[in-house]
Every structure is written in C-alpha cells, then in structure tokens.
Design a protein that fits this description.
Blueprint lengths: L2 H18 L4 H12 L4 E2 H8 L3 H14 L2 E4 L8 E4 L3 H28 L8 H29 L2 H12 L1
Antiparallel strand pairs: 1-3, 2-3
Helix pairs in contact: 1-2, 2-4, 5-6
Length: 168
C-alpha cells in the first residue's frame, strides 16, 4: 500500500473508531490527520485535506484542544494559527481516559449517590431492589474509577510489563 493510501485509510478508520469512543467522526479524522502530520497544520490545510468546512474544523479543533489532544502553535513569519497533536500514544490514551472519566464516569457516580438515597420504606421490595441496583452500579463504577486512576498514573513500561505477566 502506498503511503498516501495508507494515510487516507488511517484517517478514515480513526474517524470510524472515534464514533465508537464517543466522539464525532470529523473530530477523530482531524485528530488522525494531526497525529500523522510531521509538521503543524493550519485550519486551511485541514479543510483542504479532509474536505470539511471551516466551521466544522474550527469547532472540532476547539474540542480537541479542550480534550488536551491538540494545541495551537505558531510558525515564525506566518499569521495563521497552526495546530499539532500529541504524538505519544500513551499520553493520548491516558488523556482520553481522563477526559472520558471526567465527562462520563464522574457524573454517573454522582447520580448513583443521589439515586441510592431514594426516599421510601427500605423494606418495600421495589425500593429495596432499586437501592441495591444503584449501589451495585456505584460499586462497579468505583472499581472502574480506581482501575482507570491506576492506568492513568502508571508508567507505560510498568503497565505493558504487568500486562504481559498477566497473559503469560
């Protein structure tokens, strides 16, 4: 496969994967393009290479910056803004994990706290079942939270080494 074809396939596939990870396709495609670009790209470069509108690029770049996956940079002598992506995949992965945890898991755990405190007779089977279910979800969420914290804080070499020992 030629390099250009491989790049297009990667960008398209990363876009598809992104929809499974909870981000929109264009955001993931922009991220993919910036990941594989050796030089910073301008908004115009991104628009041209991905055939997307200025507004779409602008909105998704801002979101990628908010996620901590992309940053603005300047090039001496250029008036345009340029963008670069974090290239270290371990950092990219842990950044995504932290952001998803903040946006999804933390609010769910807060909600489970509120719902487990439902009013009613704790001996009533419906109240009892509801509370037990909410507590079970919260226990699972707390375990996932602890596991994600360990993963995020782990050194890449330690994690890979530990994972390999687990599978042996």
């Amino acid at each position: 496969m030629k390099l250009n074809d491989a790049k297009l396939k990667f960008i398209d596939s990363w876009g598809s994967f992104g929809t499974h990870w909870g981000i929109n396709r264009t955001m993931a495609q922009i991220h993919a393009l910036l990941l594989i670009s050796p030089d910073p790209l301008s908004q115009d470069d991104i628009m041209e290479q991905l055939s997307v509108s200025r507004g779409n690029v602008n909105m998704n770049i801002r979101e990628l910056i908010d996620w901590g996956l992309v940053e603005r940079t300047s090039i001496p002598g250029e008036r345009k803004e340029f963008f670069i992506a974090e290239k270290d995949i371990w950092k990219v992965s842990t950044t995504i994990i932290k952001e998803r945890k903040r946006r999804e898991l933390d609010p769910m755990l807060k909600l489970m706290d509120q719902l487990a405190a439902v009013e009613g007779d704790k001996k009533d089977k419906e109240v009892k079942q509801f509370v037990e279910t909410m507590q079970g979800i919260k226990r699972f969420g707390n375990q996932a939270d602890k596991m994600l914290d360990v993963l995020v804080k782990a050194d890449e070499n330690w994690f890979v080494g530990s994972l390999m020992k687990f599978f042996k």
